[in-house]
Amino acid sequence: MTRRYAGRQKDRFWEIDFLRGLCVSLMIVDHLMFCLYDILPFVNEMFGTNLFAGAEQVGRWYWTWDLRILVRQVVITTFFMLCGVSCTLTRGNFRRGILLAIVAAGITAVTSVVENDFGLQGATVLFGVIHMIAAGVFLYAFVDNAAVAVGDALGNGKISRIARDALRFLPALVGIGFLIYYFTQCSYVTYENGIWTIHETVRSLGDVEKDKFLSIFVYIDPNEFNFGRYSGDYFPILPFAALILVGGALGRLIYHTRAKYALSRLDGAWNSGICFIGRHAAFIYVAHMVVIPVLLFVGAWISSLF
Q: Domain Heparan-alpha-glucosaminide N-acetyltransferase catalytic, which positions (predicted)?
């Protein structure tokens, strides 16, 4: 059966929470390894310590591991499409988008202070995963509400009802259109040694600020431009927000039909831990971005006292 949480009269589907929680757990491991090879050396240099000696090499090895690259592609695709599924299960997408945008602005402000006041180059997050999800949710809400408005104008006949139901797939169609544009006009894909690699073809506009603005909308390799590494966490609207829109189709096909209860019998105590992470994914994701670096700083500071 489905669960009800926090007194809300709203069904939650365990498989969504489970997949989301699994994705976030893997992201936390990913970011931990990133901190070990990118932030830990800076922290040790600041305090004159040698905390977790050898961890930097482990982090670098992990970051370039072929399996990690493959799993990351699957994880981020799954996570963003789950965001699209979730968009079909609530009417408050504009509100969710606003909250995410506020959090994203806070992340930019805090990371900017870390870079400018503490000297950690590349720490500033100008347009990261939270920024992109906020944009994707806003985009979904706008397209879906437009589809609903058109559907309401069609009347109440049988054909009108069919048309209204079909229009709810409009966000997914827009997402597919964006992906087609991205993979035909902005990039190409190669497959080598079991790894799919996206190669960006977008070229510099010849101006640093214009390039930064462009990179919000379409994925580019900062090293190909004249501003180097400009964001510590980089997820532009294309192609990633398009995955959120496409995920809406899965939400409509599965969770707005009888198929939504297909996996209910598999629910149980075995998945409670991962599902807990999935239910609180936004908070846990944002919190771990702060907690891991802070723990490294505190650990190095304590180590410097001895």
A: 12-143, 229-289
